[in-house]
């Protein structure tokens, strides 16, 4: 290979070869030690540039070519056409149109309201939020209306409560298991507190033929696969099984902007457990209620907690069994998912006792009278 000079300075000479035009060779005039110094300092500077670029871009803003090319296509509503950061990603597909029509006929009362909802183009952007803590009958008795984030009756972010999901033919135990798996992966694999994440039932993801998956996470304890996709954890099911969800839908886990990293493997265990439990509380009501008003609600709660604990133990054992100094240390680590469930349960029950004492007393009475069996993890220490 023949090298030719393309630059020279006091440090050395820079050369390249026609056979490798994208590669340069820098030869020092002063020995190997100077090369090591330049490499170390150059690497540190490169890292500093990368980490400081977002902050400096805000201090010294320049016109963004993407916004210049696209700003005219954005609606002016609520300032949506004001240039700011954007996140480009593949869209989560809405639920199938047949399911949208079924929801409208089920939850919109009059024929006129149903027809208006069917004609509303906004209702085609339909994702279902599975709210497992309560039956809708509980909120309806309090005079609450079923409204979305825009404070209107819509299929956008449609709220489906425990009794709604049953009426739709959805297997609530299957939903509870999928939500528990997503939460466990977020806690014990990604090490996030999972604050304000969203679980939604939406259309099934069909990757383009040439699209490459980033990686998959096998959960061998359940003989399932959790596909992490390009940006979002997807709890996926085989088409013929559907895991209790409506046809051609799947569970998605999205919106991680309020999550915080939690070093769940550190020795500062008590503080971490409390942080994870509070992160579960700081969410829309996806997680089953430890104080339900029916046996069915209690059974769904038990399914959720036992799935979370089993999945968490599996993930922790996979991470720790080769590095734990002894079995006692490993078993101590494996208790952490149950500790999170106990702390979260206590937090929820204390809040209900303090804020809705009449509801708390009534539900504790029902629980005692019907003899609901307390799961073993709740009594462990």
Estimate percent helicity: 40-55%
Spell the H/E element sequence.
EEEHHHHEHEHHEEEEEHHHHHH
Radius of gyration: 27 Å
Strand order of the largest sheet: 6-10-9-8-7
Tally of contiguous helical segments: 13
* Strand segment count: 10
Oligomer: single chain
Q: Structural class, please?
A: alpha+beta
Round the mean pLDDT to the nearest integer and report it.
82
Q: Summarize the biggest pleated sheet.
A: 5 strands, antiparallel
Low-confidence stretches: 211-241
Measured distance between first and last alpha carbons? 69 Å
Which descriptor suits the 3D outline?
A: extended
Q: Proportion of β residues?
A: 5-15%
Number of domains: 2
Task: Explain how this protein is built.
With 381 residues, the protein is an alpha+beta fold. The protein folds into two domains: 3-79, no CATH class; 172-379, no CATH class. Helix content is 44%, strand content 14%. The chain contains 13 helices and ten strands. The strands form three sheets. A five-stranded antiparallel sheet has the order 6-10-9-8-7, covered by helices on one side. A three-stranded antiparallel sheet has the order 1-2-3. A hairpin with a 2-residue loop joins strand 2 (12-17) and strand 3 (20-28). It is extended and about 90 Å long. Mean pLDDT is 82; it is low at 211-241.
List keywords for this structure.
alpha+beta; 2 domains; 13 helices; 10 strands
Write the layout of secondary structure elements.
Elements: E1 3-8, E2 12-17, E3 20-28, H1 32-59, H2 65-70, H3 97-107, H4 111-119, E4 128-131, H5 136-141, E5 158-161, H6 162-167, H7 172-188, E6 198-203, E7 216-219, E8 224-227, E9 233-235, E10 249-254, H8 269-281, H9 295-320, H10 327-334, H11 336-355, H12 357-370, H13 376-379
Parallel strand pairs: 4-5
Antiparallel strand pairs: 1-2, 2-3, 6-10, 7-8, 8-9, 9-10
């Amino acid at each position: 290979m023949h090298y030719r000079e393309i630059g020279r300075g006091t440090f050395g000479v820079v050369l390249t070869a026609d056979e490798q035009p994208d590669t340069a060779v820098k030869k020092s005039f002063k020995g190997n030690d100077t090369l090591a110094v330049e490499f170390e300092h150059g690497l540190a500077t490169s890292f500093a540039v990368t980490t400081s670029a977002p902050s400096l871009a805000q201090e010294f803003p320049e016109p963004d070519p993407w916004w210049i090319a696209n700003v005219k296509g954005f609606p002016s509503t609520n300032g949506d056409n004001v240039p700011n950061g954007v996140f480009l990603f593949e869209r989560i597909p809405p639920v199938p149109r047949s399911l949208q029509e079924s929801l409208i006929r089920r939850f919109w009362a009059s024929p006129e309201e149903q027809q208006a909802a069917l004609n509303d183009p906004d209702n085609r952007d339909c994702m279902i939020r599975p709210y497992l803590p309560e039956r809708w009958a509980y909120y309806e008795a309090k005079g609450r209306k079923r409204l979305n984030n825009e404070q209107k009756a819509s299929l956008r972010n449609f709220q489906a409560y425990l009794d709604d999901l049953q009426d739709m033919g959805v297997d609530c135990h299957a939903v509870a298991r999928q939500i528990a798996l997503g939460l466990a992966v977020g806690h014990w694999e990604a090490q996030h507190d999972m604050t304000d994440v969203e679980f939604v039932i939406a259309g099934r993801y069909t990757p383009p033929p040439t699209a490459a998956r980033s990686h998959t996470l096998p959960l061998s304890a359940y003989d399932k696969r959790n596909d992490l996709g390009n940006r979002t954890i997807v709890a996926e099911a085989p088409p013929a099984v559907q895991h209790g969800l409506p046809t051609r839908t799947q569970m998605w886990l999205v919106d991680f902007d309020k999550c915080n990293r939690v070093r769940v493997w550190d020795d500062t265990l008590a503080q971490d457990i409390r942080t994870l439990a509070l992160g579960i509380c700081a969410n829309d009501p996806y997680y089953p209620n430890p104080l339900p008003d029916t046996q069915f609600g209690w059974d769904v709660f038990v399914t959720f907690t036992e799935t979370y604990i089993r999945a968490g133990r599996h993930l922790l054992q996979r991470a720790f069994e080769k590095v734990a100094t002894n079995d006692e240390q490993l078993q101590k680590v494996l208790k952490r998912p149950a500790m999170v469930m106990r702390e979260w349960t206590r937090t929820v029950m204390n809040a209900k006792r303090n804020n809705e004492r009449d509801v708390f007393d009534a539900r504790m009475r029902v629980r005692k009278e019907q003899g609901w069996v307390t799961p073993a993890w709740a009594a462990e220490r």
